[in-house]
Design goal:
With 81 residues, the protein is mostly helical. The protein is built from four helices and no strands.
Length: 81
C-alpha cells in the first residue's frame, strides 16, 4: 500500500503531456498567454503531488527547483499577456 501511494508514474505521464501541450501552444499563432498560464498551473500541481508522495530528499529538492522555475515562467507570461 505504501509503495502504491509513493508511485509517481501517473504524475510523470501527466507532466510529459502538459510539457508537450505547452510546446505546441508556443507554436500557435495569436495570444496564448492564458493557455500557457493554465498549463503552468497544471505542471505546478503535478510537481506538488510528486513532492507530497516522495520521501526522497533529492526528489523533493528537484520539485522545489521545478516549482521555482515554473513561477519564473509564470511571471514572464504575465508580462506578455
Amino acid at each position: 500500500m505504501i509503495a502504491e501511494r509513493s508511485d509517481v508514474t501517473e504524475e510523470l505521464v501527466r507532466l510529459a503531456t502538459h510539457i508537450r501541450a505547452a510546446r505546441s501552444t508556443l507554436k500557435e499563432p495569436g495570444p496564448v498567454g492564458k493557455k500557457l498560464e493554465f498549463l503552468l498551473q497544471e505542471l505546478h500541481r503535478e510537481f506538488n503531488t510528486i513532492a507530497a508522495k516522495s520521501a526522497d530528499t533529492e526528489v523533493t529538492a528537484a520539485t522545489v527547483e521545478a516549482r521555482t522555475e515554473i513561477e519564473k515562467i509564470r511571471e514572464q507570461i504575465q508580462n506578455i499577456v
